[in-house]
Amino acid sequence: MATAVGVNATKDGLIKILGASYDPIFILWVQMLIISLIFMPFIVSRHGWNVILPKPLGLQFLRGVFVTLGVGGFYVAVQYIPLADTTALVFVAPLVVTALSPFVLKETVGKTRWLAIIFGFVGVLIILRPDFSGNRFGYYLALGAGCSLGLFYMINRTLAKYTPPFVAVFYMGITSSILLTPLGPFRGTIPQYEDALLILFFFVLTSIGQVLMITAFRFAPASTIAPFQYVQLLVATAFGWYVFQAFPDQWTWIGITLVIAAGLFIAYCESQPLKKAI
Questions:
Q1: pLDDT band at 65 (very low <50, low <70, confident <90, very high)
Q2: N or C: which end of the chain has fewer CB within 10 A?
Q3: Residues 6+ apart with CB under 8 A from 60
Q4: 175: nearest Cα among 205, 150, 155, 161
Q5: pLDDT in tens, 207-239
Q6: What is the DSSP string of 5-68?
Q7: Residues 207, 208, 210, 212: what is their CA dihedral angle, to the nearest 10 degrees?
Q8: Distance between CA 95 and CA 116 in Å, rounded?
Q9: Which residues are CB-neighbours of 254 under 8 A, at least 6 positions away?
């Protein structure tokens, strides 16, 4: 899992580089199309052609909408703000899942987890520091992306009993690519020769990251894997510092620490079946 999130953080750094020359929406459309084409032969050979049609269609479509908004929002936001800040705000997703689970999933959330949610959102406010001066568009867009990914994760929980992991990734890719088709193809530009290796590396990392993520969840429970997701923030920070000479200030680190601490505490509570009401 640590390798998976490290690969994904590097891929996110590359999107910041590529986004200076190519439209992020176009890149996301191609990415989702490639994921669909890579995974389709595997799932068809294993489950047959009937698996191509997503079931249940409504929830699968909604999941595609939220992952498109989440990843697309991230890709655009990272063009405006540092990579580490964007990544930190996206980690609001687990807090969104926990905050909404009593109302959507009918799960019990105890007082201590509500306290963790509050601390996490305080961390988000510290990162945002909404003083209404300057261009804060990228920060609010990253926060919106995190909320969209939280809703995506919530629907994943609901659909887990219907869809095997590799099929779920295919559905995500095909739905998102269809949703982006009215925009993606028309926002593209012909790749420059000198960018060819960078673009190829980006799509290779995208595919490897997806496979590693799925493999991690096959060999360990989600509660064990969850803490390793925060390695992505460390890799994103290192990438941003090395490539863009951008390093979070002390207030941003305080906010990041609160968000990570809240997420780790919630992951711990999820791993304690007898303490669900914590």
A1: very high
A2: C
A3: 54, 159, 163, 171, 175
A4: 155
A5: 888 777 767 666 665 555 656 677 787 888 888
A6: HHHHHHHHHHHHHHTTTS-HHHHHHHHHHHHHHHHHHHHHHHH-GGGGS-SSHHHHHHHHHHHH
A7: 160
A8: 8
A9: 123, 126
Does the pLDDT of residue 101 top 50, yes or no? yes
- 19-36 pLDDT, tens digit each: 888 999 999 999 999 989
- Does residue 106 have a pLDDT over 60? yes
d(CA 42, CA 256): 39
- Token reading at 273: 């079946």
8 Å CB contact between 169 and 39: yes
Among candidate residues 169, 127, 142, 166, the one with its CA nearest the CA of residue 71: 142
| pLDDT at 160 (0 to 100) | 76
Whether 97 and 149 have beta carbons less than 8 Å apart is answered as: no
What is the token pair recorded at 196? Answer: 């060819």
